[in-house]
Amino acid sequence: MTMKTISAEEIGTGLSFTDDAFEAGFDPAEAALLRTRAEMLRALRNIINTWPGTQTEKAVRLKIKQPRLALILNAEAESQFSLDHLVKLAGRAGMAPSISLAAAA
User: Fold this and answer.
1) What is the pTM of this model?
2) Beta bridge partners of 6
3) For burial by CB atoms within 10 Å, which of 10, 40, 57, 67 has the most?
4) Quick one: CA dihedral 72, 76, 81, 86, positive or negative?
């Protein structure tokens, strides 16, 4: 089985997640949710960091408060945002969020 490791930096925690959810201590569904949220947060950080302006100006653009934006930018948001909210923020950021599904191996 090939394992893809997502670094702690990408996740924003001290943990490292792998495709083998049991090895990481999570059931497959929970690991998939954590991985998807981490990918959304990383993509949001990447696009937001390209925007000019202050954090407050960027937060206004996303229709959130600056402290919430700081959580995203400082990789401290892994459990602070639901997947629903991340999808909304991605849309507000001009992204076209989507989720793809595949049969489990």
Assistant:
1) 0.72
2) 17
3) 40
4) positive
